[in-house]
Task: structure prediction
Amino acid sequence: MNDNIKKQTAGRDALGTFAPKFAELNDDVLFGEIWPREAELSARDRSVITVTALISGGNFEQLSFHLKKAKENGVTKSEIAEIITHLAFYVGWPKAWSAFNMAKEIYKEDKILIDNSIWDKGEKGSSDWFTGTVWVKGLLSPDEMENLYNIGCVTFEPCGRTLWHTHPVGQTLLVTEGRGWYQERGKPALLLTKGSVVAIPKEVEHWHGAAKDSKLVHIAISNMKDGSNVTWLKSVTEGEYNDIQN
Ligand code: MN
Result:
């Protein structure tokens, strides 16, 4: 069950008294039972086909909601542009224009989302640890006031990411702004959005970083063991990074 699937109430909110059966089917069956079947088809793929179906049918009243959902489900700005360009040839030029006008508005939010971080972004992170542009603001270290934790705020510019690495006592990430990815070696990448919390087990190889078209800001909390809180490994290659967003 994906955390992105929230309890849907749109049907009941809009039609609960006028068409209670339709509202129930919308909220409990379509969004309650069909959308969450992620083992059968990912939420991202469901978003792509839903957006395609709505544009094809000219159903723009429903499109805005589903473009936002597609964005939440990991469809990037460049991908939505490509999807609509592709559709233009099959469903008609005017439908593509209408869809683009809507998508442009929905996908421009990222910039607003991320410029109000609580702390300044700190110093530029070393390329020994990061790929692309990443800023690190140290907030607390274990020496201060007998604090046990190493706490920092990390700002990844679009495409910015850590190298593959491990933590001797694990790590907790709290996402405060933007969108990005967390991936453990050998597993599918998980989408990170504002409010995501990731508990990373000790000694598990992983990376975290921004999406292609959005910054990501997270607070990272880790513990020291034998004077270190991280072991850096190989970089996340372009191939590995592109794979997750295709
Ligand atoms: Mn980590």
